[in-house]
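Lecture notes, continued. The same structure-token format from the folding unit now serves as the input rather than the output. Read the line below as a description of shape only.
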């Protein structure tokens, strides 16, 4: 590992016009946008070409730490490489570094850049996804692997097959708890049909992927009410417009807070992404740029985890 790391840093240094590894690791040099976008995928490609047996994920955090002072290298390209392979992730990273539009990057590589987290992402088609089990009952427990028939998904994320699924009555249809990596499904909730049930399950699976990949997570109305967007939105119409929210009009002033919280919750990047999964399943469309199928303006999505 040590010798590969040393060689990788030398090659990366030379490839980007630098004479020594030290200059690449200079914090001021890391401000260069093209370098920050391209180096992660470039590094992965080098690792594979030098030793096909070496898993790039084992070395990229080290390279990222040395170059950027963080594990940004792994974060930028990890998910896309896992789904589309290193070649496509590498090509996408190069295009992004050259400011090629997200749509063009997607059309040529099947990879796109997230609206806020800027991480490279890819989509696993749910075309062949099926339920092995029907509706789960209260207090029943199973696993994602036992409930979902989806070879392509489990090929990319075999570790998620053990995700627990539990039947529990609560206010909602389903929820993912990142604290214990468990998906809860409400047996008493209304589902139009099996396709609707599958879509809701896949929505929660996307939240599980977000945790696994370090993407922006989902949220809830309680989080929305604690956010600065909520406090400003109650009094500042400019903030509402900035978030892409139409003016809230209601005859019941008490309902305003709940309406506002729901609208902000829906702007959470992780929630918009999870609803996209349902929309793509409904339309059977996995070829359009994902953000084009968002039900909110992708330029207005937020991260409620930040102030």
């Amino acid at each position: 590992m040590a010798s590969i790391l040393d060689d990788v840093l030398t090659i990366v240094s030379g490839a980007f016009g630098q004479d020594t590894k030290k200059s690449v690791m200079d914090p001021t040099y890391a401000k260069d946008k093209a370098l920050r976008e391209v180096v992660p995928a470039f590094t992965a490609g080098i690792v594979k070409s030098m030793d096909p047996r070496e898993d790039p994920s084992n070395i990229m955090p080290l390279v990222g730490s040395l170059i950027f002072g963080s594990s940004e290298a792994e974060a930028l390209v990890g998910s896309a490489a896992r789904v589309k392979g290193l070649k496509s992730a590498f090509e996408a990273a190069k295009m992004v570094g050259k400011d090629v539009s997200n749509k063009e990057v997607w059309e040529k590589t099947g990879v796109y850049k997230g609206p806020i987290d800027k991480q490279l992402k890819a989509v696993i088609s749910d075309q062949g996804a099926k339920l092995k089990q029907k509706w789960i009952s209260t207090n029943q427990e199973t696993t994602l692997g036992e409930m979902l028939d989806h070879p392509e998904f489990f090929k990319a994320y075999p570790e998620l097959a053990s995700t627990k699924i539990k039947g529990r009555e609560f206010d909602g249809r389903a929820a993912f708890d990142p604290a214990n990596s468990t998906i809860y499904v409400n047996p008493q909730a209304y589902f139009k049909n099996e396709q609707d049930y599958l879509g809701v399950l896949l929505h929660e699976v996307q939240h599980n992927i977000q945790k696994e990949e370090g993407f922006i997570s989902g949220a809830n109305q309680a989080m929305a009410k604690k956010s600065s967007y909520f406090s400003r939105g109650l009094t500042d119409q400019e903030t509402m417009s900035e978030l892409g929210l139409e003016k809230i009009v209601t005859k019941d002033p008490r309902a305003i807070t709940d309406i506002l919280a729901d609208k902000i919750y829906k702007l959470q990047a992780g929630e918009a992404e999870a609803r996209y999964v349902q929309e793509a399943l409904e339309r059977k469309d996995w070829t359009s740029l994902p953000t084009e199928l968002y039900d909110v303006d992708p330029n207005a999505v937020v991260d409620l985890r930040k102030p």
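Point for the exam: Confidence is low (pLDDT under 50) at residues 1-5, 15-36, 61-76.
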